Amino acid sequence: MTFLPDSAVRPGRLAVGVVLPSPAVRREQKLPLTEAARHAELAGLDLVAYGDRPAAGAPALDTAVVLAAVAAATERITVVSALYSPGLRPPVQVAEQIASLQQVADGRLVLGVGADGGRERWAAAGVPYAERERRTDAALRLLPRLLAGERVPLPYGPGYPVVEPEFAVPMPPVWIGGTSRAAVRRAALLGDGWFPSLASAAQVAEGAVHLAELSAALGRPAPAVIVGTSGVLGTEPGLPTGADLAADLATAHGVPPERLAGVPVTGGVREAAERLHRYCGAGVTRVLLDIAGGDWRRQVELLADVRDLLR
Question: Which residues are in the Luciferase-like domain (predicted)?
Fold first, then answer.
């Protein structure tokens, strides 16, 4: 099954997906990544995502390998990188990884792209932090040409080779992650989607207006808007509250807790559906939930119930 274009997502109805569980959750709940992805697909979700963590200061799974395994283990669900960092890698390696994933995913791949992740991440990869924006933009401009099999001169000055890939595959949709003005501009210029995370519906709506204005000025259609958020579903005792999750997220991201108040999705299925539905007014067509507690399999089943209410 191929990627569902934005025109096929009915207005006011969100496509719903889940971020694959963290290593700690997978160990604790004996949940392999491929089993988690199959569970999300069988539950009826639309998307499954895995986060990119190269050179994060500690050994991490290679995102391309993980997404290839997930794509091979599933048949229908859209597979999303969240977020892949092309600026950390040589352009030829980026093209090889994405072309390979396109082949395995058979049209179900979405390339979520990020240009941040902190100074330590870029330093560990041997890439100057100040170069992250330029390198990301350069990679996104080169990638469609490389995937098309064109002869491409690498943009590093005299002495660098002209490469001609042996493959030719379709360019996957590109979702640009981040809430900064630079990220919104990159989405307007180079993206098929804008992918902010941990932002309220009001913040997303404001960014979407700016995105539409920039896109119109560039003569491009406004990209789709996709939201990444965090939450725990259900009402049984012992689950973290929205305030608990907001405090944890604020600590992790170094921001005041009040900035994230109301962002986590919590409560029963109907309450969660109502909270996610607010994003529809901001023009959001898809949402990805990072499950922050409880039994992961059960949380996915509850999220599928939320999806059914939204649709």
Answer: 33-229
